[in-house]
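Z., the sequence and structure:
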Amino acid sequence: MRVLQVNKFYYPDIGGIERVVQNITEGLPDSYSTRVLASRPRGFGGAERHNGVDVVKTSSLGTPLSVPLSPTFPIRLRAMVQDADIVHHHLPNPLSTVSHLAVGAGDAPVVATYHSDIVRQKKALRAYHPVLKRFLDSVDRIIVTSDRLLDHSEILEPFTEKCDVVPLSIDLNAIGDENPSPLDIKTQEMNILFVGRLNYYKGVEYLINAMTDVPANLLVVGDGERRTALEQRSRERGVADRVQFLGHVSDERLASAYRTADLFVLPSVEPSEAFGVVQLEAMARGLPVVNTSLPTGVPWVSVDGETGLTVAPRDASALADAMNDLIDDDDLRQKYGEQARERVKQLFTRERMLEQIQTIYRRVAEESKT
């Protein structure tokens, strides 16, 4: 079966959704032939090959409002769907939805994974809503990453009958085989870890505020437009000596960061954080998680009182209390960490996700023949 994965970006441009697409393309069995269509964030496009996967990246003039300006994307999509038995879009991605409505998918059935609602670009969203609904109405199946997202998304409400819930995943085998590379950090002290893009919905400013009352080091892995402001905030709060910005790191150094940490914090403040794959990365390594009670899959992935603690968004005091509770109680921290890894093994393995996706592929392929 020939599958075309369509996403905004692709490896080595990595975010949560990009990791999911990479897991699918590299994880499907040999009976599938998978290609990827994506865009560059900026610059000239071209054909690439990553870990045995053929990838086409279209040229882009930039990404205003997080949408690549790629005039050639619809042209490439029209050409590539001709050689596909399944077309699989990953949303949010206005570039691909508009392109799909413009050029179609030929005879191939279409699956869309709905990773999250669009939250920030409210004015643009009003104009885009009819387009998105028309796109979702046209596809054969919609994959949603959690029941909570399905229950709380107004966009998905008219399409629940064509939705399948397939949680995202982590590759436990890859974690078992990883080769951590040492980091220059204070390993003798208690270390708290954050991993993610430094953008508007991650809530790292509240985490830094909380550190004024937490006797530990904070490791911040990731980069983004808010890094300079966050570094300034750490100086203003008097915690710069205990907050270390590591920027973008290699997979080997990321593995070391997870293994050095004592607990993981995801302080996100907007429903744009629909799942939080980084929670799985932490939980799979036996770390307890402090997260926020967003109306998405975030507090379902790591459960309050079972694999960590959940607090209200934008509450630095509650964040500090939760982190201190775990820092002060070694037994509780170990208990939550062990239960976190077990929860990943039960619900969030890559094998489980791929089996569910293949079932959906087979179903839409059979239905397209009738």
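The domain at 172-347 is CATH 3.40.50.2000 (Rossmann fold). The chain has 14 helices and 14 strands.

Let me know what you think.
H.
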